[in-house]
Amino acid sequence: MADLLVFGSGGQVGSHLMRLAAEGALHVEGPARPDADLDRPETIAAAIAASKAPVVVNAAAWTDVPGAERDEAAAIRANAEAPAVMAQACARASKVLIHISTDFVFDGEKTTPYVESDPVAPLNAYGRGKAAGERAVLETYGRALVVRTSWVFSAQGRNFVTAIRAAGDRPRLDVVEDEIGLPTPADDLAGFLLEAALALRDVPAGDPRFGLLHAPGGGAPVSRAEFARMILTSVGSSAEVVPVTAASRNDPVRRPANAVLHDGRLQRLWGRSLPDWRLGLARTLAELEEWGQ
């Protein structure tokens, strides 16, 4: 019998979750396309119905933010309709659902860190889809945990860390200075998700650990420009980071200026924060160096 069913098992968080579960001698199912296609929610429902796993983790999403602006309908199917189907299927099968969401559900205008009770006000199509998805999950099922996180990075795939590191041979990099957040190492987030899955698998609805939870990387917030400097310094690059404003980039996608999530509920209910993200950055850069990337 499977212990976990993981959607998005090939992504940044999902792949780490699969690895950590295997190291813990857990049986994990990680269906991929075409057997589990976010663009065809009926395949998601069928995968949940066929699985014996008591916990479903949704680490899958449409994460192409500019692409969501071009095809919002497809992004909505992946980020809102598919999670709604997951919640319905989990309710029918009495399975726990853990769903990952994002700081992009906020408009970034708050001057202090965001808490779970703050109203959502997404600025773009990606954020609108994710906000609709978490609302659908929470309104559909009482044994669901929605985990908001921010600025996820790992040695795998394209993310801010791998992109900046790859650009380190340029003489100059223009990086936004007026966007701040808490970077989140994918392996640290996966470690918490596994902990939550094991703790909640037999817990009934009504437990306070269900609902919304913020789980960003631990440590101090950082701007995009400061984050880039840390990456480049760590890899010995002499590239100059030139701070620019988000408005000056003429980016068609508006992004939250303040992406800092407060993890007080994580501390109260789970007794911890995620580790300092700077430790995860060092680990990720060492991993990339080892891989020769």
TrEMBL record:
Q: Which Gene3D superfamilies match?
A: NAD(P)-binding Rossmann-like Domain, UDP-galactose 4-epimerase, domain 1
Q: Which domain of life is it from?
A: Bacteria
Q: Which cofactor does it need?
A: Mg(2+)
**What keywords does the record list, in alphabetical order?**
NADP, Oxidoreductase
Please name the GO terms that the record assigns under molecular function: dTDP-4-dehydrorhamnose reductase activity
Q: Does the keyword Lyase apply?
A: no
Q: Can you give the residue ranges of the RmlD-like substrate binding domain?
A: 4-288
What SUPFAM superfamilies does this protein's entry cite? NAD(P)-binding Rossmann-fold domains (SSF51735)
Question: What EC identifiers does the entry list?
Answer: 1.1.1.133
**Cited InterPro entries:** dTDP_dehydrorham_reduct (IPR005913), NAD(P)-bd_dom_sf (IPR036291), RmlD-like-bd (IPR029903)
Q: How is the cofactor bound?
A: Binds 1 Mg(2+) ion per monomer.
Tell me the pathway.
Answer: Carbohydrate biosynthesis; dTDP-L-rhamnose biosynthesis
- Catalysis performed (reactions): dTDP-beta-L-rhamnose + NADP(+) = dTDP-4-dehydro-beta-L-rhamnose + NADPH + H(+)
Any idea what job this protein has? Catalyzes the reduction of dTDP-6-deoxy-L-lyxo-4-hexulose to yield dTDP-L-rhamnose.
Give the family from UniProt: Belongs to the dTDP-4-dehydrorhamnose reductase family.
| Record's protein name | dTDP-4-dehydrorhamnose reductase
